[in-house]
Amino acid sequence: MKRLTILCWFVSLFSVVVSYAQSVSRSVQGRVTTTNGGALANISVTDGRTIVLTDKNGNYRLTTAPGAKHVYITIPGGYRIPIRDYAPCFYLELNDAAFTRSYDFQLEPTLPDDRHAMIVVGDPQVYTHQDVEACRPFIQDMQKYISSHLEGYPVHGMVTGDMVGDKPELFVPLKEVFSDIQIPFFYAKGNHDIQFGTRSNIQADLAFQKYFGPNYYAFNRGKIHYVVLDNVFYLGRAQEYISYLPEEQLAWLEQDLKQVSPGSTVVLMLHIPTTNKAFRKSEGQQVLKNSAFLYDLLQPYQVHIISGHTHLQDHHRPAPHIWEHTQSSISGIFWQGPDCADGTPPGYMVYMADGNQLSWKYKALGLEDHVQSRVYAVGDNPERPDDLTVLIWNYDPTWTVSWYEDDVYRGAMQNYIGRDPQTTKEIIKNKKTYSYDWIWTTETDHLFFARPQRSGSKLTVEIRDGFGNISKEYVQ
Predict the structure, then answer these.
(1) What DSSP state is assigned to residue 330?
(2) Range with the poorest average pLDDT among 1-10, 42-51, 66-75, 446-455
(3) Residues 260, 265, 271, 275, CA torsion sign
């Protein structure tokens, strides 16, 4: 009995120490080196609140904030991104209670990576193991594309959040599927990746952090600085959340950007878009509430914001120095219809970095990467039965869309807002087989029309993207 009493006393004491350590600051230290022991200076090390830099010997010392769970680094350009448990390994857990210890990082140099590629995947949102398996064709398509189009390029992936549909038990199976491609995938937290029913936003994050580590962080590749933020803020009631960046993230980002030269390119990923196009809804759950302050911090840079959440494909410029790329979902309409609600076929984006410059194109599953549109002959679109129409899923304002009738140039096609006829037709046909009765199409501004002058003439649509790539589609 006495031995049991002593054991219980030690357990209680340890619990008190752990609880105390989690509520106070801790002093941690360590060293960042190459795999052969060389010191790495000026590497950012953080606990998610404070950022310090390693000295000339690669050493750092950091006083962590109360409640901090990780110490992590910003991987510099020119170094391999390590992988552990199917995800990038740039962090260590703070799990030694009140005791100071060394948290060391080793990085392996690689060939120069000023020219590299990035694959962006939108909202897998898997609800079942069957949905997880449905992701495999996308991974296989990416593997094929990398080997045929990106040979010699360092490649990493970005996932815009909502890895699962409120099913944290599917985090690991999904990560395993994505690991088959053998490139590092960085993940943002989505609103379906949080634990509903908890009392606060901090507790709602715990499941995500258990499987993916910190919910906001940065890394470098070549001359581009990458940042991942968490703008899903749980309100502690039912499934209510808003899109909001807390002060601790904005303050951390402000520190982070001090290490980035003005004029540099910054790629920032978060789940919920910072803004929407005028014809789309702008509810609290659909757009970032405090985006103006984020834009202000990003003012000195050329910025590309990558978001998801809507399951729709959009590119626009919310500010002169910012592109926002909202990524459509690989799940289409929640694994129900063949396309996304705006008519975009499920696929992924491929971004090519050359120094500070980025270019991009959409790669639809099973299609060649030059296929960017779906053309409808006269009579095929109920919204415009007398017109030639075309849906261009990766359209942005830098594109031009022209048409020819019997090889005679007729000018630019007219842009309009409408619904994709093929997607609408498929939903009407199969609606009774879907798991959700609210499945329907969404308006898009990626549609164009022109009215032919003669019946039966040969019609050609010529599409030129913002990087000079030209594709042509023919209909009778």
Answers:
(1) T
(2) 1-10
(3) positive
Percent of the chain scoring above 70 in pLDDT: 93
The whole-angstrom separation of Cα 42 and Cα 44 is: 6
Confirm if 417 and 444 have CB atoms less than 8 A apart.
Answer: yes
Q: Name which of 355, 367, 280, 259 is nearest 324 in CA terms.
A: 280
Specify whether the CB–CB gap between 346 and 365 falls below 8 A. Answer: yes
Structure tokens of 83?
């992988």
**Any bridge partners for residue 110, and if so which?**
none
Map tokens 């970032």 to a residue: 288
DSSP conformational letter for 39? B
* DSSP β-bridge partners for residue 358: 353
297: Cβ contacts below 8 Å, ≥ 6 apart = 250, 253, 254, 257
Instruction: Give the position of tokens 């879907």.
Output: 434
- pLDDT at residue 4, as a whole number: 37
Q: How far apart are CA 389 and CA 450, in angstroms?
A: 7
Which amino acid makes up residue 143? Q
H helix runs in 230-275, sequence order? 247-257
Q: What is the pLDDT of residues 239-283, one digit of tens each?
A: 999 999 999 999 999 999 999 999 999 999 999 999 988 887 666
Q: Which residues contact 324 (CB under 8 A, 6 or more apart)?
A: 273, 274, 275, 304, 305, 307, 314, 315, 316, 317, 318
348 secondary structure, DSSP code: E
- Tokens found for residue 103: 């948290």
pTM given for the model:
0.93
Distance of CA 115 to the CA centre of its chain: 20
Comparing 25 with 450, the larger pLDDT belongs to 450
**Dihedral sign computed on CA atoms, order 333, 337, 342, 346:** positive
Tens digit of each residue's pLDDT (9 = 90 or more) over 288-298: 999 999 999 99
As a whole number of angstroms, the distance between CA 337 and CA 429 comes to 10
Three-state SS for 131?
A: helix
Q: How far apart are CA 31 and CA 23, in angstroms?
A: 25
* Residues paired with 350 in a beta bridge: 119, 361
